[in-house]
Amino acid sequence: MKKAFQISSADNVATLLADADAETIEVIGRGSLALREKIPLGHKVALAAIPANGAVMKFGVRIGHATRAIAPGDWVHLHNCASDYDERSNTLDNETGAPTDTTDAYA
Asked: What is the pTM (predicted TM-score) of this model?
């Protein structure tokens, strides 16, 4: 069974330790969780429902907010979460993390 880990008991997300499809995984120390979609290694999965504008908690601190409602088992990433620290986070490409609001003048 693939695994994820929760860093702090205050976190509402866990980090995947392997690429996973829509399957049941083990959240170390918490039990099983059904993923609702494919989630890449190192990315976050929601452990609980996070309402639109609700806090995304990791490391025991708020790292961002949901840009729409997120269900348990959903991938938490740029398509449904924005950083509270980087105003440009909602302009980054979901797959590469590259900025989409600027062009490379030196290409």
From this structure: 0.81
